[in-house]
Amino acid sequence: MEHSFWHNKWQLDQVGFHQENGHPELVKYFPKLSEGSSVLVPLCGKTKDMLWLVEQGYRVTGVELSEIAARDFFKENGLTAQVSERKVNGNDFNVFQCDQLPIVFVVGDFFNFNGESFDALYDRAALIALPQEMRADYIRHCQSLLKASSHGLIITTVYDQSVASGPPFSVLDEELISLWNGHLERVGAIELIEEEPRWKSKGLTSFKEHIWVW
Ligand SMILES: C[S@@+](CC[C@H](N)C(=O)[O-])C[C@H]1O[C@@H](n2cnc3c(N)ncnc32)[C@H](O)[C@@H]1O
Description:
Blueprint: H1 3-11, H2 24-29, E1 38-42, H3 49-55, E2 59-64, H4 67-76, E3 81-88, E4 91-98, E5 103-107, E6 118-124, H5 132-144, E7 146-158, H6 173-180, E8 185-191, H7 197-200, E9 208-213
Parallel strand pairs: 1-2, 1-6, 2-5, 6-7
Antiparallel strand pairs: 3-4, 4-5, 7-9, 8-9
């Protein structure tokens, strides 16, 4: 996906992927970490899930292309931030350090992002937002940013891509298992076709989310 695709979405406020109440399965399945653990949220949009992670006692770093998403995130949640510019390997990032909560919101291309080694990963609508040819790089980059002892949660979408196309793309279990190439357990499979009229109207009879943890 070109960066312009996502920048346009944010400029036109076409952010149907955003969940006003966060993702229901996060609460149920996110691994229990020790107090103060660091959680990386790639391609974070303006997800409220970052607030839930902070409420659990974790420090959160979100990485997102769109500065509109960052500004919306702070404004809509009644938060403020100190903004600074950072160069990583010659690439520009704007870093929003939240004043009230342990949240760092980094604006820039995730593929150029480099930071600490994180204790955990939370991926909702990140891997599945990327076309197949980008997914191996994405997983490799996530893994390079995680400690060997890391935990995490990835949510994939699974549907018949010969009937409808993404994003969100369908990422089959075999693909994720092969890309991740490490311990990963599928703990949930949720059928959403009745709640997603958009997919039903495209002719799909099933649209599932699969929840993975390690
Ligand atoms: C489908 S949205 C999901 C957002 C968020 N995870 C959520 O659950 O609401 C995908 C997001 O990834 C961002 N994005 C796409 N490519 C990116 C990249 N290379 N680096 C950082 N963010 C990116 C887009 O701007 C968009 O906000």
